[in-house]
Amino acid sequence: MSVPTRDNSSFKLMAQFGHQKLVFCNDEAVGLQAVIAIHDTTLGPAIGGVRMLPYQHTDEAIDDVLRLSRGMTYKAAVAGVNLGGGNAAIIGDHRTQKNEALLRRFGQFVEELGGTFIASLDIGTTPRDMEFIRMETECVAGLPKSLGGSGDSAPFTAKGVYYGIKASLKERYGNDSLAGRTIAVQGAGNVGEQLIALLREENAKVYVSDIVEERMVEVANKYKAVPVANNNIYELDVDVYAPCALGGTVNKETIAKMRCQIIAGSANNQLRNEAEDAQLLMEKNILYAPDYLINAGGLISCYSEIAGYNASRTAALTETIYETTRSVLRKSMNENIAPHEAANQLAEARIADMRKIKR
Ligand code: NAD
Q1: Which among 97, 213, 235, 261 would be 20 to 30 A from 137, CA to CA?
Q2: With a 6 A CB cut-off, is 97 part of the ligand 1 pocket?
């Protein structure tokens, strides 16, 4: 029986979203205040980023970890890896308040969770920080190659997005050839650049934008892509718009301008208002490859690090994004539901099935 409390909003959220655990970590001696959320461990230990941000209120940190840990459960489930969803937030300014003692103390809290939470990189944490956490617990993924980790995840993320684009082309046009297809990549960062390289290798015509003009020009010249002003990218008459910069770029205002056939990119949370924007895209007959499905290459690489897989197994697992994207888009069309909804349903079905065989 649940106990009534005066402020039960966290419990309400946990009950609504099915979270298992919310852990508060406190150590005044090192100035550590952190929260760790474990959403679901049916498929395996809960993996999640450790972010360090100067939250104004503890509630904001709690909201963040509850929301993000749930997202990780779905991402891992639909990617077909045996991991659950978690997330951690250290409250503080990573530029001024982060130090070895704080990170190692956090690592001890992770260790106390007995292998149910695996820490990885997020906003405000670096590979070096993961090294400090690793000194206190083995439950860390995404370590640099020099420490036996999988290193930079961007190449795997880019490869997954490439498969997501090809799968979407197949569903829209009946063939997945990139030759002659037009693709607008927003953001020429770590993932964007590697994606552009893969697309250009197969003779796609690529447009590229970045708020850092120098970066845009450099990448455009290197791969013979066409630079475009960031504000004009939505209006391009292209096959694919690939958001690889930041979230929320697919919204009421931008959808009204869009002339692309497909949206498929690496950015997290691309739809500003998930349900409304997905509906607008369906009305405009723009195919949307769910972000969390096609950007799962980095997670797959972390999973390989944990499972001890080699590079070819990681590549094979990343390639499964192609077939999963096709299944999701077909389910979405057959059942007339939004693609992210179709992906959610696949994730939920896998978790429900695995619960049946869990002893
Ligand atoms: P990055 O920081 O290396 O690159 C982002 C690029 O976008 C930068 O060049 C930046 O100048 C540019 N940019 C920022 N705001 C912009 C704007 N308004 N318009 C145009 N360009 C803008 O990041 P990344 O590692 O390449 O990741 C790209 C996106 O993919 C992010 O949203 C990230 O959360 C997401 N993602 C990355 C990974 C990964 O493995 N790196 C995994 C999953 C999701």
Answers
A1: 97
A2: no
26 to 36, 105, 132, 188: CA distances (angstroms): 11, 9, 18, 39
115, 147, 179 - which closes a domain = 147
Mutate to test the pocket of ligand 1, among 157, 193, 249, 318 (most ligand atoms within 8 A of CB): 157
The model's pLDDT over 23-72, given as tens digits with 9 standing for 90+, comes to: 999 999 999 999 999 999 999 999 999 999 999 999 999 999 999 999 99
Indicate if 134 and 168 belong to the same structural domain: no
Residue nearest to atom 9 of ligand 1 (CA): 189
355 domain-assigned: no
Tell me the CA–centroid distance for residue 191 and ligand 1, in Å.
Answer: 7
Look at residues 105, 130, 147 and tell me which one is the last residue of a structural domain.
147
137 and 50 in a common domain: yes
Residue numbers of the domain that contains 282:
154-349
Measuring from atom 32 of ligand 1, which residue has the nearest CA?
267
